[in-house]
């Protein structure tokens, strides 16, 4: 895992939904679920190469706006076709009102 990098303040995220962040040149979708948890995943849908930040958040899932692929934001696993390849999930740390992300190791 990489070092933690400040991404934003909690008040910059939607109360429930997704937002695009660029961290060290890498596009990441920041997600806040309805239970208040914050997650970070790679922004690009593994099926159609479009931004997941434009998708809809439903529980712990985000749905790609283009073809409806759904990904579990906790694991990155696709749970609805047409996507079959997971997205990378990154570690989120909240300190006070600040959101930090550490990138997962690339395989």
Topology, element by element:
Elements: E1 5-9, E2 17-23, E3 26-32, E4 38-42, E5 56-58, E6 61-63, E7 70-72, E8 78-80, E9 89-95, E10 98-102
Antiparallel strand pairs: 1-10, 2-3, 3-4, 4-9, 5-6, 6-7, 7-8, 9-10
Short structural summary:
The protein is mainly β and 107 residues long.
Describe this structure in words.
The protein has 107 residues and is an all-beta fold. The protein has a single domain (5-102), classed as Rieske [2Fe-2S] iron-sulphur domain (Rieske Iron-sulfur Protein), CATH 2.102.10.10. The chain has strands at residues 5-9, 17-23, 26-32, 38-42, 56-58, 61-63, 70-72, 78-80, 89-95, 98-102. Strands 1-10-9-4-3-2 form a six-stranded antiparallel β-sheet, with no helix packed on it. A four-stranded antiparallel β-sheet has the order 5-6-7-8, with no helix packed on it. A hairpin with a 2-residue loop joins β5 and β6 (61-63). 27% of the residues are buried. The model has no long low-confidence stretch (mean pLDDT 95).
């Amino acid at each position: 895992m990489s070092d933690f990098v400040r991404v934003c303040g909690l008040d910059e995220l939607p109360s429930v939904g997704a937002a695009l962040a660029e961290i060290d040149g890498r596009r990441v979708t920041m997600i806040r679920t309805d239970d208040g948890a914050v997650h970070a995943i790679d922004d690009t849908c593994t099926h159609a190469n479009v931004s997941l930040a434009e998708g809809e958040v439903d529980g712990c899932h985000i749905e790609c706006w283009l073809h409806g692929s759904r990904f579990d934001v906790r694991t990155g696993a696709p749970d609805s076709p047409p996507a079959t390849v997971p997205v990378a999930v990154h570690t989120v740390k909240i300190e006070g009102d600040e959101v930090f992300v550490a990138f997962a190791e690339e395989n």
